[in-house]
Structures are given as C-alpha cells and as structure tokens.
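Translate sequence into structure tokens.
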Amino acid sequence: MRAYNARLRGSSRVKPIICVCVLLCACLPAAANVQFIDVTEAAGIRFRHATGATGARYLPETMGAGCAFLDYDSDGNLDILLVNGRDWQAPDATQTARLYRNRGDGKFTDVTETAKLNVPMYGMGVTSADYDNDSDADIYLTAVGKNRLFRNNGDGTFTDTTDFANVGDAGWGTSAAFFDVDKDGWLDLFVGNYVAWTPETDVPCTVAQHRSYCTPTVYAGQSCRLYRNRGDGTFEDVTLHAGLDNPNGKSLGVAVLDYNDDGWLDLAVANDTEANFLYRNNGDGTFTDEAIVMGVAFSASGKARGSMGIDAADVYNTGGTAIAIGNFSNEKTAFFYAEPGADYFVDTAARVNIGEASRRVLTFGLLFFDCDFDGYLDLFSVNGHIEPEVGRHQQHTPYAQLPSLFQNRGDGTFRDIGKRAGLQIAGVGRGCAYGDYDNDGDLDLLVSNNGVDANYGIPWLLRNDSEPIGNYLRVKLVGTTSNRDGIGAKVRVTTADTVQQRLAQTGSSYCSQSELTLTFGLGQNDTVARLEVTWPSGQIDRHVAIKANQSIAVVEGASQK
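Result follows.
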C-alpha cells in the first residue's frame, strides 16, 4: 500500500457534536452544507450534444448519451469523455465523442483529434477499464450502429481495435460494463441493446395529429451481448452459451453487483417497458435470470416500467443490497432493497421517501455516492422528458427538469436536498458520473444533457463545494493475479462506528462511467481501523491504522506485515 496525492484536511472542518442514534444511524458529523457549483464554462468544456433532429422524430433523438470520468493518460488527474450523436445526413466533422484532458489546474483541453477518438458514430454509451492489463484505461463506446473499442496506446493516443477484438455489435448499443465473468484475470464485456430501429424502418407516430416520438413498444427488442476476453486482445461472443440471449429486453442500464454474496459477479439490467433482468452468475460461465423470483422485474403492482438508469450498492452499511432504477414520469424511481440472506427484494421507494419525490420527473442516469462523507451513500439522479412538447399534453410535466439529490439520513430514509444544494437549473438530463476531478478529496459530478435543439445539450461539470464535510479515504486498486483495475474486488473499511463495503465496478448510471477509485466517507473518524480487500482471485489483503484524508493504492498480494 502506498499513499499518493495526499490532501490532509484541517480538523476545524469537522465540528464535534452530540447526536442521538436511531435505527441504523451511528454517530454522524454535523450536517454539511452540501453545495455543487456549475464550473463547466470556467473549466473550458465547450460541448453541445447533437441529436440530428430535423422534425422527423426519430426515436434515438430522445435518448441522449452518456459521459465518463477516466484518467486516460495516467497522470493522476481525471479526464472527461462526452459521448455524442450526429446528424443523420452529412454530419459535421466535430460531431464525435469528445475527450477533455484535465490540465490539473481546474481547466480542460479538448484532445479528441490528438487522441484519435474522432470517429463518426451516433454514440450512446461509454465504459472504460484496462481490458488488456497494460496499466492504462481503454474505452468502449456504444452506438446506434456499430460499437467501437479503443485500445489505449499509453502515449496519449488510442487505436480502434473493434474488428480485431470482435466486439463491433451493430445493433442499438446502450449501457455497457467491463467485468470478469469467470475470474480468470481478464475483463469480459457486457453490452446492453435497446430496440431494432434504423432510419429505414422508422415507424411514424402521432399524438393529436402531431408527429411525435414513438414508444419503444412499437419496435422489437434486441438481445444484450456478452463477450469473453480471450486474453490475447480478442473477445468471443458467448451470449448464447451464457444464457443471455434474450430479445425481450429493451435494455438501457446495467449494474454489476454480487447480490447473493457468493463471490461471482451478477448483472442487474434495466429494461424499458419490459421486465427488468437480474442475472445470477452460476460460476460456470452461465447466468440465470432471477428478476421475477427476486422481485425486481416489475413494479409492486406487477407492471413493467419505463426503466433507464440503474445502480446497486450497500446504502445502509449492513451488508444488504439496494438497487435503484430510474423510471418514466408518473412511475417513480424504484428502490429495491434486500437485507443479507433475504429471499427477495422489496421496492421500498415510498418508505425511504424517494417514491413520491420522483413521481413527476422522468429519470435517466442515477448513482450512489457519498456527497458529504458522513459514511452513508446518497442518491443522485438526472431528469428530463423525451418529448419537447410534453407540456402541450401534460400541463404539469416540463421537458427540462431539475436533477435530484437524495441525502441518506442514516436512519433508513432519504431527503431531497437538490435545490438547497445548488441544483437549481433544469436540463434534459441523461447520463451522469461521479469523480474527484480536482483532487481535493470530495466527489464532483458530471452530467450529460440531451441536445434536441439549441437551448439544450450542454453538459454540466458540478464541483463539490460542500462545507463542513466528513473525513474520507480514497482507495485505488491495482490487481496482479486479478484484472489490473481490480473490478469485482470487495473493499471493507472498518472505523470506530461503522463498517462499509463497496464493490469495484464499471457500468451503472445510464450509458456512463464513474471513476474507478473507491471513496469512503469516514464522518468524524480520523483513522481507518481496518481495510480489507477480497480480490476476484480469492486473495485477501488487510491493512490497519490508516490515516484519513488521503488517497492510497492497494496492490493485490501486498498485505501489511
């Protein structure tokens, strides 16, 4: 274990308090004044998402695209990637995904052309990880049409290895995730697919004699794909063998998790107007869909919802699993929860104060993160309708909508503090990701907005300026026998008053990728008593007495002596 970029905070930032513990609540720091500041323009990010909309009302124009925090040049500063669509006819040469290099001074530089990522496509999603175990971040982009894999050359440039790697599925790709299906040390690739649509097969739809965007029920679904990493730079399509060949799903979001805690990575998939999937990894290269028996396929009334973004985590520090899913307006965000060893999940959205607060909005990307470092994961979501003229038919449903920030109160419930936290600008939110781009310890947010016309489509870089805030520990994993990024590793952090567990994962949100470094809020604790990493290989590493407010790298097999 080694420390890097340590940023110790003065003790004056955390005020001593007296608290009363209720339900799950341990002693928490003083309530932080949570604040996020839009620094997009000041950071030098000049981007507008292109949908290609001309009035034909093609379905992809409603869906927007994702975003990512990643460190592509391994300099310790998080860079930004924004996925882009394009015009259907004669696209502009700049209508490609854009890569912004973090200069380390709060500003970014567009390096797309230099990095050789300026490849035209109608982009949708992004996932990033080191699939070839050479210590740098590779990029996979999904699209309406051929998906693309870009191998990082380690010199600031990428090479399009899609055809060589055999991962260029030409359907309608959405969210994707790298994860190690078989624990052989190589990251495999899961790719969500939406519906069978092309401009030539577009179905015209109308509402009150006005041309409108169709619902996905008009089109047949497409099966997700699973590619097994052979370890030589190529992948094998094992979808059929793995039991994942299922065209019934119209998949938009995927979360990697281990809901039965058996050490094998499972998949939760959010489907639009179809039953969600919960694929249990059988440990032999195959999966079984347990969504119905585990209670996450449908709403409590037994209906399939318009599901988009998804994330999964232990939000109460009990070892249980929460699965949050963003749904269509008037369907409410789902908040499925299961205690350790539970026979099934229960949608507790109403009970935890998320259901009613999310009823009117249409939620795409969402994610769990600790915005105030009190040791409990909060829930951030971005919202925006798919129909620009929705107000004509639904008076109280706006097209552009405010994002939501549900603060975990530590007692089993949440409260929406979005407006109070500075999230007061409405957008057409689609993807979102978290990461500490300015290396000050706390977690910032990146949001992609759909660009259906000139009024929208500008992303948001939201800097976390919350005060006072709890202590923290950031953990970067370096696999040796396991995959280099440690995807699938379980990290347990024990302090004087709580035990937190996180899973290193890609995917989650909607078509987006958060940073891979794991960040733990420590509240008032200035020391981590014990840190334990269970790697995919089975190796368990332990470290004790770690000082708070620093970033550390934990190398597989290098336990503290």
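Note: Residues 1-29 have pLDDT under 50 and may be disordered.
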